Amino acid sequence: MEPLLSLRTFLAEVEALGELREVRGAHWNLELGAIAELSYRSPQPKALLFSEIEGYPSGRVLTGSTGSARRLGLTLRLGDKHTDESLVEALRGKPSAWAAAARDFPVLPVTDAPLLANQVAGEINLLEFPVPRWHEHDGGRFIGTGCLVVTSDPETGVHNGGCYRMEVQDEGRSVTIAAVPGKHGAQHIDAWFARHGRAPVTISFGHDPLLLALGGTEVPLGVSELEYAGAVAGERVPVVIAPDTGLPIPAGSELAIEGWLRPGRLLEEGPFGEWTGYYSGSRRPDLAMEITRLYHRDDPILLGAPPGRPPHDYSYMRTVMKSAMIHDELVATGVPGIRKAWAHEAGGGRLFVGVAIEQRYAGHARQVGHLAAQLPAAAYMNRYVVVVDDDIDPADLDQLIWAVSTRTDPAEDIEIQRRTRGSRLDPMLPEGATPYNSRAVIDACRPWERLRSFPRVAESDPAYLAEVRARWGEVLG
Ligand SMILES: Cc1cc2nc3c(=O)[nH]c(=O)nc-3n(C[C@H](O)[C@H](O)[C@H](O)COP(=O)(O)O)c2cc1C
Question: Per the confidence metrics, is the pTM higher than 0.70?
Fold first, then answer.
């Protein structure tokens, strides 16, 4: 029987939905990445399972795991019949409920798992697996895209699971982990360095994409993503306890490693095609892992999630997760009249957020805009928040641009926040500069004092339109 959070269970379900395609014989060097990239841009991209990869008689790679409402709904245990809109609606309220319930789902240590079929201690070569070189100007082969990096708080023992890019180093003997300072995994690693001079980690490279969605999204500090995953699945997550580090590895993993990070053990990594749609800066040193053990199933499947110019592998997932979380967090502030929030895929689910409100008082729109730009779910790398009236669907870019074009006076309606939380991945950040950014709050609501007198929108009454459509259906098609 497959353990909970097995990627193979997920694949069987996706295949039953008709959303899986097998691709045989692609090359790991650029070709696999290019096929995935073309697929993301197609109208209804399927998940792609690459097998018989050039030069690799065994080992497979999955891309596009969460790229549709049905697949992401399945991943989040919200049902597989959703549209984009209904999925975000179904997700509303869930992240905070799951975070609160996480403690009731402690991980479940097990001693038997398919992952343990093959174990290597000592001489490890990650290039025995078909690790892709995803984009032409990447600095190397990145095994960690859809991975889960597990660390712990040395004081409380609470685990964190984060998704950070990882480049294969030293001819397969090591990997660098590019956790940005301040991310929870990076905080744990720093705390271990300060207390013990080294930091333990385990990493899973193939698992139910629920762990990609949770590891890749801002779950509150102090909440273990593995316990959170248990709350989502309604069952404790079985884990193998790695013997050298004592950290958990999901028993459903395809391929995993354990080992140590040390403050001075750095290797150059990057650049890498990133979620902003640009390569990240230049090659620079990052923490390189001393791998003590490797575990893998037969013919293991790597969970690929390469970013790039949107739409990319996980931009849809990010949009859905962030839209629901931003909406929830706005409502939780107690500010009234919040109708909908949408974190656009074109902005990687972070840079460009639209919020619709029913205006209740003078200053309401600005209040919502400023709050939205600084919510925990949005603060990292937001750049634009556009607030619109509730006759505008903020998920529809055409409607959003129409509101900005016709309901703003640029001299009055664009507010700037400065020295806010940016990222070293920001293509606008000069090399070596401190990662601040600025952000604009665009108030594209009709001015409060002119709500009643603002020119009427030139469109017919919806009831009349429905009547006409019924009468003229043949002409209108
Ligand atoms: C596929 C993928 C790759 C990511 N790569 C990185 C990365 O290299 N560095 C980083 O700091 N965050 C990266 N992120 C974003 C983090 O996973 C995200 O901010 C998450 O909340 C971090 O977890 P933490 O808050 O528990 O540290 C990536 C996310 C995804 C989905």
Answer: yes
